[in-house]
Design goal:
With about 350 residues, the chain is of the alpha/beta class. About 35% of the residues lie in helices and about 25% in strands. The protein has two domains: about 70 residues, Immunoglobulin-like (Sandwich); about 200 residues, SGNH hydrolase (Rossmann fold, 3-Layer(aba) Sandwich), CATH 3.40.50.1110.
Length: about 350
Amino acid sequence: MHPASLGVALRQAGALLFLTVAVACGGSPTQPTPTPDPPSISCPGNVTASSTNGQTADVTFVMPTTQNGSQPVSVACAPGSGSTFTVGTTTVACTATDATSRTASCSFDVSVTAPAKLSAVKFMAFGDSMTQGVTSLIATMLAYNPNDAYPLKLQALLAARYTSQVTRVINEGVAGEQADGEGKRRFGRTLDADKPDVVLLLEGANDLNHYLITAGDADEGVTPAARALEEMVDAANKKGIPVLLATLPPQDPEGKNGHSAGTVPKLNDAIRHLAHGDEVVIVDLFNGLGGVPAGTIGADGLHPTPAGYDRIAQIWFEAIQKQYEEPGSPPPTLSLKRPR
């Protein structure tokens, strides 16, 4: 064979041998690795937080998620999760960066609301045993537990909502007191001593029972009790102190101390007539408790149960919120934990 033809034959044979060996070993011609799609990023929804001091809040949020991109893909947000945010709305910008420096971005808002605030923070709760916190677990026995008193429960509600303010509810309840008696005499002295922003006034039940016992007719106590309450209201208003005036809770006529149940609505009507403007606002405990004693009035038919005092505190709280909460406060989330 001619030398040139021999070289061509050898080269062809070598190429065939290479392909045969490659196929026998399971190999294939090398293909280039495809480039991944650029990264994409998805931010969480807008976040709302509350400031307890009216200035800042530490806010933690869920980090964005990513797809595609050359691994590893890193994510950074500014400001970062756990940062301190001021009151108002701050935009958080997040960026995803892959291994080849390609980026994608998204953003969301963090809104920090200021805490609710009151225009009045010092309250004087004035009244008889229903302000002091007396209960009756059995009809023939009264008990006093400070933790049952509505002023303490109201204090807890106010402190939970108005976190940037120091609120105070002073318990000036005296068991057995009549409005048309020691009540109206004590009121002025207590007002001067406490110097409250607002008076919470609940009294008159003992007046009805007094006239039931002494005159045989509780109705005789309606006018003197209402007149005494009006004197207290006037005394407070003359000092520029507004009054939240409560209707009496319902009574159970079957209870030992609830025999004025039928007269309570009459006194409450007289109490409602004392309302005028912002100086005297009626807080309707009677209808707030459903107008019936079941579930909220104790065994003696007169004094609220601990659950009844819970509800009474809530009614006072809602009245205070409506009357004295400043505009722009966040929506309420009401809850009550009994004080320990």
